[in-house]
Design goal:
Helix content: 25-40%
Shape: globular
Mean pLDDT: 89
Distance between the termini: 22 Å
Number of domains: 4
Largest sheet: 6 strands, antiparallel
Strand content: 25-35%
Number of helices: 12
Low-confidence stretches: none
Number of strands: 17
């Protein structure tokens, strides 16, 4: 496939890396450049005696460089990729040198081991024992949380505004001890609500209601339908091992060509969480791929916005399945012209209402909007469609580049809706895909 500069820059870990990568994307700094059907590689002159050896597996893409940088991809990897995107004719088609071939073979062996591990079955007795121990801890923690919620409601929501942060943190810490990190995250998110916005009582009440519903649902888990059980467990913080998901005969499995429409990274307690949104070209449904990296650990770069990936996805169970795991995939291809089922703002909100009715704990919902224009109002940035409907954008999002790309004209926009604001992730301007 043909890679674009925008796709490469979207992989950059920060603006400084982008700037340094662009400065190194100069043929004079790369005495050796090579390529084959799978990879590109090159040697970049640096400050030391030996050049830095940089290599990229284009099938994902994946990166490796001999430089000491902890950033991923590093500036040399970005520079090599930018050179390939702009001047592919500089790369000599040839067999890879030993240092590239060894890396590619190691990657192939690692992938084979992962597939073998996924087929292995866990010890059912040991697994049952661990689950029983955790169930006991969660049950004790939920009894305390139930009483905490009742006390808060008896005192009245007005008292929440006078409570210090430790009031919420102590309750969250109790849930961490009870091995229910999902509830701890919700409690910490609630801490700021009483101090933001004039409608904080209604927003806080809604979040407390969702939390109480989770507590009551988990206490009645045995009598709930299977999909509800899976959703409640997930919201509590239970994680399902990938090998279990892949070998579960009841898992939802979909084969399609998946358009990679957006990516963003958040940091929670030194843990980097990467969200990549896909959209099935045939099934016309979204999928969310999560990956995690602690501190400077590299995140998965195999799904690049602006590409399409023929792949088989396995969806995690739940009331409104969005999160998925890539079971099998082929190399990325060029993103096809926009033929996706985009919606008006009114239709998108109707769809979101149906999604929330199905899963009241849904945190984020992908929206593919047919024709919207970014505008700046007294209340901040928003997008508006030809029917006059509008949605506010996420606070802190720099919408000026979005306005420049649209030129003040309607564009197809993809973003993540959290129930209050929209985070734009990509758009199509003049039939060209652009990451936001």
């Amino acid at each position: 496939m043909k890679w674009t500069v925008e796709q490469v820059i979207a992989l950059s870990p920060d603006d400084k890396s982008t700037k340094n990568g662009k400065s190194l994307a100069n043929a004079s700094k790369w005495p050796t450049l090579g390529t084959n059907e799978q990879a590109i590689w090159g040697e970049c002159r640096g400050s030391g005696k030996k050049p830095y050896r940089t290599q990229i597996d284009l099938s994902e893409p994946a990166f490796l460089c001999s430089c000491p940088s902890r950033k991923f991809p590093c500036k040399h990897s970005l520079a090599l990729f930018l050179l390939f995107a702009n001047q592919a004719d500089l790369f000599t088609p040839t067999d890879p040198p030993d240092w590239v071939q060894e890396w590619l073979e190691k990657r192939s062996q690692t992938a084979s081991r992962k597939q073998t591990k996924a087929k292995a079955t866990a010890d059912p007795e040991a697994q049952a024992k661990r689950m029983a121990q955790r169930e006991a801890k969660i049950s004790a923690g939920l009894a305390d949380l139930d009483q905490w919620l009742r006390d808060l409601m008896r005192q009245g929501l007005a008292t929440a505004q006078t409570q210090p942060y430790r009031f919420w943190e102590n309750a969250a810490a109790r849930m961490v001890d009870a091995q229910a990190p999902g509830l701890a995250r919700r409690l910490r998110d609630m801490a700021g609500i009483p101090h933001t916005g004039g409608n904080w009582p209604s927003r806080l009440l809604a979040e407390l209601g969702k939390l109480y519903l989770l507590v009551q649902g988990y206490q009645r888990l045995a009598i709930l339908p299977e999909a509800v059980q899976a959703e409640v467990r997930s919201q509590m913080g239970w994680t399902q091992k990938q090998e279990e998901l892949l070998t579960n005969p009841s898992s939802l499995v979909l084969e399609d060509t998946w358009s990679v429409l957006g990516k963003h990274i958040t940091t929670e307690d030194n843990l980097n969480v990467q969200c990549v949104w896909l959209w099935g070209c045939t099934h016309q449904r979204p999928a969310l791929i999560l990956s995690f990296g602690y501190q400077n650990q590299p995140l998965d770069t195999s799904l690049m916005p602006g590409t399409a990936v023929p792949a088989t996805l396995v969806f995690y169970p739940g009331l409104y399945p969005l999160r998925a795991l890539v079971k099998e995939r082929q190399p990325s291809v060029d993103l096809p012209p926009p033929t996706l089922s985009a919606a008006t703002l009114s239709a998108a909100m109707t769809h979101y209402g149906e999604a929330i009715a199905t899963n009241p704990w849904l945190n984020h919902c992908p929206l593919l909007l047919a024709a919207v224009i970014p505008q700046l109002s007294d209340q901040g940035w928003r997008v508006i469609d030809p029917q006059g409907d509008q949605l506010p954008l996420r606070p802190g999002f720099d919408a000026w580049p979005l306005l420049a790309l649209s030129g003040g004209h309607p564009v197809m926009l993809f973003g993540e809706w959290d129930g209050q604001t929209l985070l734009p992730l990509s758009l199509w301007a003049n039939n060209r895909f652009m990451p936001c």
